[in-house]
Each structure stands twice: as structure tokens, then as C-alpha cells.
Write a structure and sequence with these properties.
This protein is α/β, with parallel strands linked by helices. It has 11 helices and 17 strands. The structure holds alpha-L-sorbopyranose.
Length: 378
């Protein structure tokens, strides 16, 4: 019998929806030790948390996040607000002894992330950062193949995350829908928003990153601020490309932009090893491309593995072999893993401490982008 786990969700935007959907779906498909109970959702009055509560099934709604954290009946705080609010909420939630699920990136910068790590570790509360793409079954399968040693020594890691939604100079910065363009709210541009995903996956698949050399650009220097209506300097990186060295000796090439016309969310990765290579593309997320040089030469070639069989990661929980799942399911997987680890008293990955590593690499990238110099990540 699953134990009830009372959830307090803070944030009623896109991520609040993905996390609420995961809570609602979890025990339809997974035999979780916990049953999430949607107790209370918190959002600004202007964002209508009452309507959100009704739509997703929360018992109550609230406009002050502190009141959610003060409640004795809340077991887990789910942070889905803009980046500049993560630290204050997470630190308060840790002090109140709540389990915490926090959206990515963990913080505005690594100094703030350090404080968050100290808070959760001191309080000893379960914590997880929502780098959901690790839990696409094809990406988890890539991790299995690499860990089995199928690729052999890794030489190259390559990753892109391309979008095109900020090309127009009319797109404002700040406010409800465009806070990702306001450096005070977001911390950075594509580095923290998109490359952080690529970095999290890369660290997981290929180990530590020791040095980076980056190139960043802000193509549109001033934008109207959605809250003040004034033209204001843009402080975020619109595009960033970086080279890196991994601790295992392999070389990395990463690129991200919101100015790649035609690309909405093209997240790709490729790993080249001594024996085999693999590649994955978010737009075809249920497939893992795999090439193994040890195959007989008459049939050697890139295979497109349709990751839907029941012996593939997470897939036995869903439909029958051959039938695909998608983006929303990664949040169900993340919640299932988090609650299972919580039940066993284990840390779930990526914890706040692991996400701090990603944050340090983002800081090193931004600093290298400014100085034009190679930069160590520790
Ligand atoms: C930005 O457009 C964004 O929504 C990111 O914030 C998410 O993390 C990414 O998964 C999709 O793109």
C-alpha cells in the first residue's frame, strides 16, 4: 500500500504542469512506495493558482510560498518558479525538513548553489534537481551501453541544444513569459537554460569536465522590459559554444543558441568511442542510433534502435513493445526514481550536490566567454 506524500507545488507555469502531470500519472504506471497527494499549489494571484488547482486536482491554492513551507502537513516542496527564487525557497524548505524537487538550473550561480547544497545536506532532506532528459529511455539506454564498456575508450562527446524563439528584437525581456531573457531572474541565457541540460547529461554519461573554453554572444543588446516597459540592456548570453576536456581524456564540443532559425528544441548528443559510437536526438527521442565496429563488416552500419521493448529502461511500465512514449514521461520517471530512493533512504541523482557541479561548469563557461581564456572548472 503506497504511503501518502503531501506535495506543495510552488509555480504554476510550464514546469508546474509537467510536475503535476507526473504526480497524477505516477501510480497509474509505477508501483511507487508513495502516493503523491496534491495538497496545495502556490502562484501569484495574477497567474490564477485557483484555476491551476482546479485543472490539476490540488486540494488548496495559495499565493505566499512561505505559508506552504510552514505547513506541517507538507512532505515535499516542488520548486517550479523562475531561477532567482530557487535558493530562498529551497533553503527555507530544507530548514523545515521537507523533501525538495527543484527545477533546473539549481541556482543563479555556483555561489548560491553552494548555499543550497549546504542547506539540504545539513538538514539531511531528500533532494533532486529536475534534469529530466537523463530519463528519456533512449538516453538511459546510452548510459547502460557506455557503462557496459561497449564503446571502449571514449574520444569525443558532442552536443547541441538549438532554439529560435528570441530572434525578433520585439521579444521583450522579463515578466511572466520572457523571464528567461532577464539576467537578474535567469542568471544567464542559453548556458544555464539549455547547455545546463547538455552538461548534466554529459557528466552522467562521460564523467567530469575539467577545463572549458567558450565563446558567447548577445546578438540583441537592448530589449523592452515586460514589467517596466523601458528599453534595458540585455545581460544574458543569446548563444554559447564551448570546447572542453573531460577527466577521461576525451574532448567535448557543445553549442547552444536561441537564434537557429527552424529549430525549436533540437537537443542532440553523440559519443564516439574506440569500438562504437552512439547518438541521440530529442526530436526523435525514442530512438538511439548505435554503430559498432565489431559487427561483421558485411552488415556493419548505424542501427536505429527503437527503444520501446520491455527490457529497455522504464519501458515495461508503459504500453506494449513498439509503442512510444515522449517528453512528459521523463518527469514521471524522475518522480518514480526520486520516491523510490527516498523510501530506501538513498540519494537520487542528480542531487543538489551533483547539480552544483553543472553550475560550476556553467560559471566557468560564462567566465571563459568573457575572458577568451581556457578556464578550469573547480
Ligand atoms: C526553454 O525554452 C526551455 O523551456 C527550457 O527552460 C527547458 O529546460 C527545456 O527543456 C526546453 O526549453
Amino acid at each position: 500500500m503506497a504511503k501518502p506524500l503531501n506535495i506543495g507545488l510552488i509555480g504554476v507555469g510550464f514546469m508546474g504542469r509537467t510536475h503535476s502531470n507526473a504526480c497524477n500519472r505516477l501510480n497509474n504506471f509505477f508501483d511507487s512506495p508513495y502516493q503523491p497527494v496534491l495538497k496545495v499549489v502556490c502562484g501569484l494571484e495574477a497567474d490564477n493558482p485557483a484555476a491551476f488547482a482546479k485543472q490539476w486536482g490540488y486540494e488548496e491554492h495559495e499565493t505566499d510560498w512561505r505559508k506552504v513551507i510552514e505547513r506541517d502537513d507538507i512532505d515535499m516542496v516542488d520548486i517550479c518558479v523562475p531561477n532567482n527564487m530557487h535558493a530562498e525557497i529551497a533553503i527555507a524548505a530544507a530548514k523545515a525538513g521537507k523533501a525538495i524537487l527543484c527545477e533546473k538550473p539549481l541556482a543563479l550561480d555556483s555561489a548560491q548553489a553552494e548555499e543550497m547544497v549546504a542547506a539540504v545536506e545539513q538538514a539531511g532532506v531528500p533532494n533532486l534537481v529536475s534534469y529530466n532528459y537523463r530519463r528519456v529511455p533512449a538516453v538511459t539506454l546510452a548510459k547502460q551501453l557506455i557503462d557496459e564498456g561497449r564503446l571502449g575508450k571514449v574520444f569525443h562527446y558532442r552536443s547541441l541544444f538549438l532554439q529560435d524563439w528570441t530572434i525578433s528584437a520585439q521579444v521583450p525581456q522579463g515578466g511572466k513569459n520572457t523571464w528567461r531573457l532577464d539576467v537578474k531572474t535567469a542568471g544567464s541565457g542559453v548556458t544555464g537554460d539549455l547547455l545546463a541540460h547538455c552538461i548534466d547529461t554529459a557528466l552522467w554519461l562521460n564523467g567530469s569536465i575539467t577545463d572549458v573554453s567558450a565563446m558567447t554572444e548577445t546578438f540583441i543588446k537592448q530589449r523592452k522590459h515586460a514589467e517596466t516597459g523601458e528599453m534595458t540592456d540585455v545581460g544574458i548570453d543569446d548563444a554559447c559554444a564551448f570546447l572542453c576536456r573531460f577527466g577521461n581524456g576525451s574532448l567535448g564540443v557543445f553549442e547552444s543558441t536561441r537564434y537557429a532559425r527552424g529549430h525549436k528544441a533540437l537537443y542532440t548528443l553523440e559519443v564516439n568511442g574506440e569500438h562504437a559510437s552512439l547518438r541521440w536526438d530529442l526530436h526523435d527521442l525514442h530512438r538511439l542510433e548505435y554503430f559498432d565496429h565489431r559487427d561483421d563488416s558485411t552488415v556493419r552500419g548505424w542501427r536505429s534502435v527503437h527503444v520501446t521493448d520491455h527490457d529497455m529502461p522504464y519501458m515495461k511500465h508503459w504500453w506494449v513493445p513498439g509503442l512510444q512514449i515522449g517528453y512528459e514521461h521523463t518527469f514521471v520517471h524522475q518522480l518514480a526514481d526520486f520516491l523510490e530512493a527516498m523510501d530506501r533512504g538513498e540519494t537520487c541523482s542528480p542531487s543538489f550536490r551533483e547539480a552544483l557541479e553543472t553550475q560550476k561548469i556553467c560559471d566557468a563557461i560564462l567566465s571563459s566567454g568573457k575572458s577568451g581564456q581556457w578556464q578550469g572548472t573547480s
